[in-house]
Design brief:
The chain has one domain. The chain is α/β, with parallel strands linked by helices. It has 3 helices and 4 strands, in the order E-H-E-H-E-H-E.
Length: 81
């Protein structure tokens, strides 16, 4: 499975749910560089930019799937008001 976390709460949930083979992607606004380095999780990727406005369209899903073919993709979605 691949987890795409867009908030710190979503990242915390992904870290709880993910096993060693699951990939976790997050943006720079979700975890600081220092916290990322301290975690030392080889399955965690931190981008240099925010994923908060990420649009999960066919292009984005294709990019994720290209890196992790055939895996289920879990994407954190904002709560509805």
């Amino acid at each position: 499975m691949v987890f795409v976390a867009t908030t710190s709460a979503g990242l915390a949930e992904a870290l709880r749910r993910a096993d060693g083979d699951d990939a976790i992607w997050c943006g720079s606004d979700v975890i600081s560089e220092a916290e990322y380095v301290q975690l030392r999780r080889s399955n965690l990727s931190r981008f240099d930019y925010s994923l908060a406005d990420l649009q999960m369209d066919d292009g984005t899903l294709g990019t994720v799937e290209g890196h992790h073919p055939g895996q289920t993709i879990w994407v954190e979605a904002p709560r509805q008001p």
